Amino acid sequence: MKIFTLNLCLLFLTCSLGYGADPIKIGGTLGLTGQYAPMSEMVASGLKLWATDFNNSGGLHGREIKLIILDDHSDAATAKVLMEKLITEEKVDLVFGPYSSVITTEIIKITEKHGFSVLASGATSDRLWQQGYTHLFGVYIPASRYPLGFLKLLTRYGIEQVAIVNADDMFSQTVAEGAYKWATRLGLTITLQEQFKKGRKDLTKLAQRIKKSGAEAIIVGGHFNEALDMRLALKSIGWYPRAYYATLGPALKKYYDLLGEDANGTFTLSNWEANGVRFPGSQEFAEKFQNTFHVKPSYQAAAGYASGQILAAAIKSTGSIDKKKVRAALANLDTMTILGRYGVDSTGQQIRHFSLVTQWQNGKLKVVGPREIKAVKSTTPIFN
């Protein structure tokens, strides 16, 4: 099994500060290869940049941060084994969460057993916070609310017929369930609701059924591949709805890189945009990320950085990395990050953060909602 260990001392030359005490070891797994790689790479880069910034400013309580990231290959069973290794063999002081709700469901069994708190910077399925876990804390809004902003946008433009399709993983199912609930409450008509097996590439027949259903808008619950494959399927049948929305994938520049002009018109949710709300430090983060990694940061990258900020705020508030004290701090913390406000309810689910609606227009991802956000200049959506 190939393991990627990222020591910030080597990658970013932070050893030059001459720390006297032992470093604080923070470990976790991410799908640096496999189906979650595009998003996981962004989270990893955000975490690395955060650790570098903190090390260059003196570390946490004068101790260097040593970040250990293991590649779980986007596989839940692998992530579970590696998390156990990090805790029992690497003797990490703290951990961070993996990417995807499915993988988080597996590693949380290990972290709960050992009393480690997990900031879920890559997992949002509502079901995670319905299992009675005591050490899991959300960074984003729950997945069931992801489609809400887009659905509200549809009502403004008189679009009433909606098809909802999703892959059969936990996150995608939750998105679809939320889409159905909110669409119904908003008085929209569901013309088709269907689930397909994750990993299925050819969605042509499903696209044909969506068209036949009379849908004016499509909501796709999935990750990067599902968003891309459905857009390709629509192109293959020569049809495009008045509005196309897909989760996660379209938030990445890679989506446009692969589709070119066919990406234009796609709506998606974003939990952060550099050209969105100007949270403290967000612009500086975006510029530094671009200069360091030579790519624009996605909201997943911002979440990785923000998770570090949240964890640091919890440690500073207690003056300790004791697991029980950190857990108590994360449960009660109310703080601002580059991603926005952090605060959770009694189950650990995020309640302070809010999301944006974005759309690819002329090769750029534009913020188009919600209109309540006065700091964002809304751009009139493109409907075919």
Q: Which SSEs are present, and which pair or pack?
A:
Blueprint: H1 8-11, E1 24-30, H2 37-56, E2 65-71, H3 76-88, E3 94-95, H4 101-114, E4 118-120, E5 136-138, H5 148-156, E6 161-167, H6 170-185, E7 189-196, H7 204-212, E8 217-221, H8 224-236, E9 243-246, H9 253-259, E10 266-270, H10 282-293, H11 299-318, H12 323-332, E11 335-337, E12 340-342, E13 356-361, E14 364-369
Parallel strand pairs: 1-2, 1-3, 4-5, 6-7, 6-8, 8-9, 9-10
Antiparallel strand pairs: 10-13, 11-12, 13-14
What descriptors fit this protein?
alpha/beta, Rossmann fold, 2 domains, seven-stranded mixed β-sheet, three-stranded parallel β-sheet, disordered N terminus
Question: Can you describe what's shown?
Answer:
- This protein is α/β, with parallel strands linked by helices and 384 residues long.
- The chain has 2 domains: 199 residues, Rossmann fold (3-Layer(aba) Sandwich); 140 residues, Rossmann fold (3-Layer(aba) Sandwich), CATH 3.40.50.
- Helix content is 38%, strand content 18%.
- It has 12 helices and 14 strands.
- The strands form 4 sheets. Strands 7-6-8-9-10-13-14 form a 7-stranded mixed beta sheet, sandwiched between helices. It has a 3-stranded parallel beta sheet with strand order 2-1-3, sandwiched between helices.
- β11 and β12 form a beta hairpin.
- α2 crosses α11.
- The longest helix is centred in the first third of the chain and has 20 residues.
- The radius of gyration is 20 Å and the shape is globular.
- It starts with 7 loop residues before the first helix and ends in a 15-residue tail after the last strand.
- The relative contact order is 0.13.
